[in-house]
Design a protein that fits this description.
The complex is a heterodimer of chains A (about 400) and B (about 350).
Chain A (H helix, E strand, L loop, with lengths): L5 E8 L11 H16 L8 E5 L12 H4 L10 E4 L5 H14 L5 E9 L5 H4 L13 H17 L4 H14 L14 H6 L2 E3 L2 E2 L8 E10 H5 L6 E10 L13 H14 L4 H4 L2 E3 L7 H8 L8 H7 L22 H17 L13 E8 L4 E8 L5
Chain B lengths: L3 E11 L7 H16 L8 E5 L2 H4 L4 H5 L11 E4 L3 H13 L5 E9 L5 H4 L16 H16 L3 H14 L14 H6 L2 E3 L2 E2 L6 E12 H7 L4 E10 L13 H10 L8 E3 L5 H11 L16 E2 L3 H14 L5 E8 L5 E8 L2
Parallel strand pairs in B: 2-3, 2-4, 7-10, 9-11
Antiparallel strand pairs in B: 1-7, 1-8, 4-7, 5-6, 8-12, 11-12
Amino acid sequence: MSKNAVAVVGVGQTHHRSSRKDVSMAGLVREAAVEALEDAGMTWSDIDAVVVGKAPDMFEGVAMPELYLADALGAVGKPMLRVHTAGSVGGSTAIVAAKLVQAGVHERVLTVAYEKQSESNATWGLSVPMPFSPPLVAGAGGYFAPMIRAYMTRSGAPRESGHLVAVKDRLNAVRNPRAHLHMPEITLKMVEESWLLWDPLRYLDTCPSSDGAMAMVLGSEKVAAAAPNPVAWVHGMAMRSEPTMFARRDQINPQAGKDCAADVYRQAGISDPRRDLDCAEIYVPFSWYEPMWLENLGFCAEGDGWKLTAEGATAFDGDIPWNPSGGVLSSNPIGASGMIRFGEVAQQVRGAAGGHQVELKTGKALGHAYGGGSQFFAMWVVGAKKPE
Amino acid sequence: MRDVAVVSFSYSTIAKEQMRNEVEMLAPVITEAIDASGIARSDIGFTCSGSFDYLQGGPFSFVMGLDAVGAWPPIRESHVEMDGAWALYEAWIAIQTGEVDSALVYGFGKASQGNVHEIMSLQLDPYYVAPLWPSMVDLAALQARAYLDSSGLSERDLAEVVAQAMRSARDTPQAIRSGEPSIEELLAAPYVASPLRDADIFPTTDGVAAIVLAAGDLARSVNKRPAWIRGLDHRIEPHSLGARDLTRSESTALAAKHAGVASGPIDVAEVHAQFSHEVLILSEALGVDPSIVNPSGGPLAANGIMSAGLVRIGEVAQRIMDGTANRGVAHATSGPALQQNLVCVLEGE
């Protein structure tokens, strides 16, 4: 059975800020959704189904908030799904929405991911002490720092490797008016001298905590043909998960990430991602995850990721720009961060990325999200041309 | 659309599980469902689960849940913060894309770890309603009163619903409650929230459930009589209770229409009615006679939060697979006072 073609026909996102006190949760998601609908040349009544994603409900203190958001997102009388796959959720949500079109069940699906982190403290929301478990009380950074130190040992990467990413992504964000952090003055020295949080992670090596939302309208081939603006075609999408408590896991270079990338590259006809893609938006919440994921995603040999960063290959003017939008290091509404990656690459191949538009050669780009303790992965490759 | 069927089902419930965590409760049920499916664990194409962080009181309840599956080598997997019935919907979609031919679906939750009636208040509009802390029982009582007033039925009719559920539940090993209560006995009990008494309200239940789905020829090759999914649809209503007609379930009726409930005779119905009056509202919305509803006893007998909707699909599928029914309908709900509803039509060959 052949899958139906799926295209991104509309994209919308909020301005990401540390606190969007000007909007309620409903106002936040609606801001992104309205922009996506306008981009798609549609109104609420054109939408067949709504798929919502976000990270743990405890971040805002609202259980299953999609129930309350049904009215604001025009879902009344329609099917509404709520996806939650940890940090990868923004990507997983887009994939679930795209599958509704791919399966031929719906023609036009609105998908929205958000987080309004100012409603609570996300770092400690991630580390609730649980009965019969040793309290972690570390937040995400405390969890990932030992993985990063292990990566440094394995690869021999110098300590500045992460800081280079921290500078690069913040300079990219200056080109992106929606980004939370705008730090045109950032230097390597500033990063090196910022507070040490979890060795080797310094304050400026970490993502911010943001309020924000991302929305996309996904459509069938017929819908894409009628779209008022260029569309981004889905060339491949994949999800992979691996267990948490399992001795054979390699948390530094996870098998689930490798398998997910191999699957999505196979679908999209990518044999060398560095050559075959114009750019990538990759979930890098802590700077060191750029070199780590460069290796995990096959952009270079194992142990060489930090060299690509140091050479400038992933810079805005490099041969394979990573996170031209500024990435998670510049805007991080956790539940939306994955969908921002997926939506940003759609904007790139549509030629609609504005100030952070990269040069299009192959017309293909990779969006990536991961979550949990690197057990959960979601990826898609989008292209300017319809897949053959 | 591809033909997709339920090929195996397993579930367990307990009033208060004090020895095992969610993973330990899930592991045997998932293994039982996989073993009964005739499909090797390593051959299952997709896995999807439903759970609810607020029951566990921590973020990411599904993360550890996955450890009950044996996700190595890494698997195609997803999770909804919804009842397992919606996880089944996502799995059905994955099979419809043609990418996979089979799926494992599970739902789980330990409601006894907190006060589930109050926890569900956190589902309400966070600005205007949740701060008032109406419990899910309070809201159900408002709905029950509105329904009795509009229908002309009485609390005696609700007691009849409870008595039927308790009699039916005597044959269900997973039932937390069952028996032969008299109507007088039921009506003599004090109100929890008028017009609802304790027996009108689901018993707090820790529960897990697993279903294996398979497409077309694979389903036929592993199961003599698969329970084919002939229609599957779900719809949501406005969140505000004041914006809905609480005496009817419009989204159930709409989902039933799209799922094609009325296009053939229904032998059996299992509805996710957590309160007695909901059995009547849902029977009307589905167009089925209440006498064929919830032969298992339904959620008034056992209501594992996040698995009870999936269990409804399993209970209907099991009756089709064992030949005691030919065509049935299953229903799942989410949200305050039946805000969101899913309808699944199942049939034998």
